[in-house]
Design brief:
This protein is α+β, with helices and mostly antiparallel strands. It contains nine helices and 20 strands. Helix 2 packs antiparallel against helix 3 and helix 2 runs parallel beside helix 4.
Length: about 400
């Protein structure tokens, strides 16, 4: 396996359309990195540049210790799994798995004489080795009983396993996945996510994976790269991305349902007390929790004048607690909103409850079904939240950093 390094990598079309803007990314040996973002954000283009299928407009890509900008795809020691399975319909599963390696060997050996005895013995050994690699990959992916079938006889999940197996038999330095699960239904996607994670742990392989599905990114990645309009927004572990989003886009894109946003002001009064306030809600905050440079004079104990800063308060749906009738038990760190339930979306053992606030803004709370026994659509309700779960964003969309103390 190998490391992958992108230094100031960019891609433009016609000199005017900037598809990827100065990406810097270091992928460690054996790491599973997921590029995620909405359609058109540049994630697939970045992957294709790593594979050598797109030329760079600027920057350098290295695989291992070697810069590969001018190295053709076949010589980069990578294997790629595409969104469409790209299986040969007239070949069996066994033949599909072996095809790539057979073609590479045939290309290298055309000058050899078929009647050379030493060469024929060598080819027999290679054929046995290839057979072993195909069967080993099939066992790893659980498709060993399907080797003599043709693609039309397979389900979508089985076809995707064959596509992964075709990459696996190559034993490449880096695996590249371009939205490989997009064509599968929800249950198969969940199953394949688990299998890919197990496969990564088994192989300890370097994997770069592209998806628009943030649930896939959160469940698969060691690290996530969030992209938007060709620009990397944030790089971090799933927990870092979820708990400390760097801006409002990341906060809203990562997480289902997305983070709730409430417009208001960050206020510090003359006595030094810090709070978030809007027309129908006030939430006391601890100045020590926020980075002093981010909130400026609001953080200074010596600053005695009242100061306000326009902000948005962000709160995850799973950090809101529903209370029927708007009756909320007040606690030292618990505060509440009140509103009317306008929709309840049941999702198995969980439910997403959409509440309209007095300002007409809708917020969503995720809760267990046991909390819905006394709540119906149209009812008034309260929403408890803890100040320690709050996020703050400035008017330009950047997060106000939380103190690391």
């Amino acid at each position: 396996m190998a490391t992958v390094q992108l230094r100031a990598v960019s891609k433009s079309y016609g000199g005017t359309v900037r598809a990827v803007e100065s990406v810097d990314l270091a992928i460690a040996d054996g790491e599973f990195v997921v590029l995620v973002g909405p359609s058109g954000c540049g994630k697939s283009t970045t992957l294709r540049m790593i594979a050598g299928l797109e030329e760079l407009s600027g920057g350098t890509i290295s695989i291992g210790d070697r810069a590969v900008n001018d190295v053709p795809p076949k010589d980069r020691d990578i294997a790629m799994v595409f969104q469409n399975y790209a299986l040969y319909p007239h070949l069996t599963v066994r033949q599909n798995l072996a095809f790539g390696l057979q073609q590479r060997r045939a290309y290298k050996s055309r000058w050899k004489s078929l009647w050379n005895g030493t060469y024929r013995a060598q080819r027999r050994g290679e054929a046995a080795s290839l057979r072993d690699r195909v069967e080993s990959a099939a066992v790893t992916l659980g498709i060993e009983t399907l080797l003599e079938r043709q693609p039309r006889e397979l389900s979508g999940g089985q076809r995707q396993r064959v596509a992964v197996g075709r990459a696996l038999v190559r034993n490449p330095a880096v695996f590249l996945f371009d939205e490989p699960l997009s064509n599968l239904d929800a249950s198969l996607r969940g199953q394949m996510r688990t299998e890919l994670r197990i496969l990564h742990r088994t192989l300890n392989a370097t994997m770069v994976y592209v998806t628009h599905d943030q649930e896939e990114a959160m469940s698969l990645a060691d690290r996530i790269v969030v992209m938007r309009s060709g620009v990397v927004q944030q790089i971090g572990s799933p927990a870092e991305i979820y708990d400390r989003p760097i801006n409002r886009f990341v906060a809203s894109f990562i997480g289902t349902p997305p983070m709730n946003m409430i417009d208001g002001e960050l206020i510090r009064d003359g006595r030094g007390a810090l709070s978030f306030r809007c027309s129908h809600f006030a939430l006391p905050l601890s100045p020590a929790r926020w980075d002093a440079d981010a909130i400026g004079p609001l953080a200074s104990p010596a600053y005695t004048l009242a100061v306000t800063l326009p902000v948005k308060l962000g709160i995850r749906p799973d950090r809101l607690k529903l209370v029927a009738g708007g009756s909320v038990v007040e606690g030292r760190s618990e505060h509440h909103l009140s509103g009317q339930v306008v929709a309840i979306e049941r999702i198995g053992s969980l439910a997403d409850v959409v509440v309209r606030l007095p300002s007409e803004r809708l917020v969503t709370a995720r809760c267990g079904m046991d909390q819905l026994t006394s709540i119906r659509e149209g009812d008034s309700c309260g929403l408890q939240l803890d100040a320690s779960a709050a996020h703050l964003f400035t008017s330009d969309g950047n997060a106000i950093s939380q103190s690391k103390r």
